[in-house]
């Protein structure tokens, strides 16, 4: 569990700098330059991610059950993950109303993904992993919306075509991941 916790601290810590110390971050970027900052941020994030994957894998060897979620939570988790993939796609598809209205769909997608996994998994490592991501996403979204208000962020209006592309791309990505990649990469097949 120590490796998982360390990974979460490193990965989410790096992703929390803007939440906790945005002015310090701006000064570091000014001193280092954007390229060097992005490079350092990427290296730290990759190290944290590797530690999370390794630590989560180690925890599966000796799982600690906290509760046994009912079967219906898996169905709800599938729907929430579909929404998470659509939100993720909306973060990158230009001119969609999802992004225009929500502002930060990727962070909301992380919230949906983490909540889905918290509902459908009852092991200690799951609660730590997905609970940490959910908590981070709540604070990150609040901070991002606060920055938007302070900077009077203006969003590009979306179109129906942009919405359609985001929904179809997200649904297709969800289908590929849910039916094939989740089992191959994670070892759990959501649909049998």
UniProtKB/TrEMBL annotation:
Regions crossing the membrane: 40-59, 71-93, 113-139, 160-181
UniProt key word Transmembrane: yes
Main subcellular location: membrane
UniProt keyword Transport, yes or no: no
Coiled coil: none
Keywords: Membrane, Transmembrane, Transmembrane helix
Membrane topology type: Multi-pass membrane protein
Record's GO cellular component terms: membrane
Pfam families: NnrU (PF07298)
The organism's place on the tree of life at top rank: Bacteria
Start and end residues of each NnrU domain: 3-190
Locations listed in the record: Membrane
Cross-referenced InterPro entries: NnrU_dom
Protein name: Putative membrane protein
Species of the source: Quisquiliibacterium transsilvanicum
